[in-house]
Amino acid sequence: MYLTRPPKCRCGTLQLKCLWELRAQYTQFAFPQPCIFACQSVRDPSNLAVMPFRPTGSCVLRSGTLLLAIFLACHGAAAHDIPVDVTVQALVKPAGEQLHLLIRVPLKAMRDVEFPERGPGFLDLDRIDTSLREAASLWISREIEIYEGDIRLPEPRVIETRVSLESDRSFTSYEDALAHVTGARLPGNTQVFWDQAMLDVLFEYPIHSDQSRFSIHPGLGRLGERVVIVLRFQPPNGSVRAFEFIGDPGLVRLDPSWRQAALRFVELGFFHILDGTDHLLFLFCLVIPFRRFRALIPVVTAFTVAHSITLIASAYNLAPNSLWFPSCTDLVSRSHSGRRCSSPDPTCWRRFSHSM
Asked: Residue 124: what are its φ and ψ, rounded to 5°?
């Protein structure tokens, strides 16, 4: 019902308010649009004027703020289910015509899988085996690709699954991890919550020979926001090769040729320099005093060689472990730079100040 005569206040002016507040008093009127204005001091319903609502700038701002708050609340609730930091431990060993993959993943990263519970939320370890195998197939085996030469291996067979405590240290070696996964299970009365337990799985892949060259693509980046994969490969000769990746590293050669290894180290070294803010700042301070590219080449080369020597020395435990060693080397290098600036050459002193 539309009324055409505008309402007037006792003071003779038009003061408007939302008619939704008057709906409870004048229920006999039908208002076809949700936002309608009428006079604030209406006494007689016959004076009502129905007018469509025209949104103002403040109304649009409030509505946008409300929608943004709802979006952030929903986004935060969804992101809460995704773990922030996830560490995956993996052990790979070919033996005969089988390749064994032992892997440990936090159980909280296995989303969309219902694990049976008992009591106040403890895992029901007597009925959890089916859920563990489902999680291992859905979140692990489908995301890992293993190649023998250039041929991708078929889907693995799940041999064993176990629930472990976070304090368990059996994945330090292949033999200890294999004995743990194939050994006794946790007692059924163990009180452990699902987000405080680890999932241990033993996969078996069929291969032609354990002397082949193997590669792996551990695409486990969707387990969390930041996934660290610690992988150890144990070839038949008994040596152990350790790898560490962050996120999805792509295809990794477990037994690479020297060309593949050199290319991999060059790639890792390049991104290591880019990720290290201290390295970039140090190089920048070295570059500032030089104005010619030819004079800059020996400095950058010397920095690269010295950095490589220190990394090799630390990997083979050739450097002293005492706390005084880093400070001593830093002091010697700076004092050497200071002796070189004994002349009043301002350029030399600028270089020394930058190095300090």
From this structure: -85, 90
Task: List, for residues 59-78, the tens digit of each pLDDT value.
Answer: 556 666 666 666 555 544 44
Condensed to tens digits (0 to 9), the pLDDT of residues 133-167 reads 999 999 999 999 999 999 999 999 999 999 999 99
pLDDT of residue 72: 55
Can you tell me the distance from the alpha carbon of 111 to that of 299, in angstroms, rounded to the nearest whole number? Answer: 51
Residues 175 and 95 reside in one and the same domain: yes
Place of tokens 């270089």: 351
- Let me know how long the chain is: 356
The C-alpha atoms of residue 86 and residue 84 are separated, in whole angstroms, by: 7
- Neighbouring CB atoms inside 10 A of 220's CB total 23
Asked if residue 7 is part of any domain, the answer here is no
| Parent domain of 205 | 85-266
Domain count of the chain?
3
- Pseudo-torsion of CA 224, 206, 237, 239, nearest 10°? 0
pTM reported for the whole predicted model: 0.60
